[in-house]
Design goal:
6 strands; alpha+beta; 3 helices; six-stranded antiparallel β-sheet; elongated; 135 residues; Thiol Ester Dehydrase, Chain A
Length: 135
């Protein structure tokens, strides 16, 4: 999977690991969510400002395929690309361990927008994301 439009480097913290010494599976969802939020900020979109404007992007479906574990102190890069399908914004997000770029996680996050509490197309996102959409 190529054509990434955004990437964020991070490092595993001790408390994110389980008794086996590997990152607990739930933390990968935090990693990819943080990446999406940072991507939005880089595109000039503030989550809190959206909510104030009654625009609430929400996750509708999430799939994650675990390829290799991360351990305490590991550095990694979280990458994403974006596609529009109907009213859904689909984020394809992959995590790679650094420095060897070993594939750690492949995920797909389908998001939709609630505008004034109703499922709706989001013209704001369509305009801002247009240059990023994977074709």
């Amino acid at each position: 999977m190529g054509n990434y439009i955004y990437e964020l480097k991070m490092k595993v913290r001790d408390y994110e690991c389980d008794l086996q010494g590997i990152v607990n599976n739930a933390n990968y969802q935090h990693y990819i969510e943080h990446t999406r939020h940072e991507f939005l900020l880089s595109a000039g979109i503030s989550f809190s400002r959206l909510h104030e404007e009654k625009i609430d992007p929400v996750v509708a479906r999430l799939t994650m395929a675990f390829k290799a574990p991360l351990r305490s102190g590991d550095e990694f890069v979280s990458k994403l690309r974006l596609k529009k399908e109907g009213i859904k914004y689909v984020f394809y997000q992959d995590i790679f361990r650094l420095p060897d770029m070993k594939s750690v996680l492949k995920s797909q996050v389908e998001t939709v927008c609630l505008i004034n509490g109703r499922l709706s197309d989001c013209e704001l996102f369509d305009n801002i994301f247009a240059p990023y959409f994977d074709r």
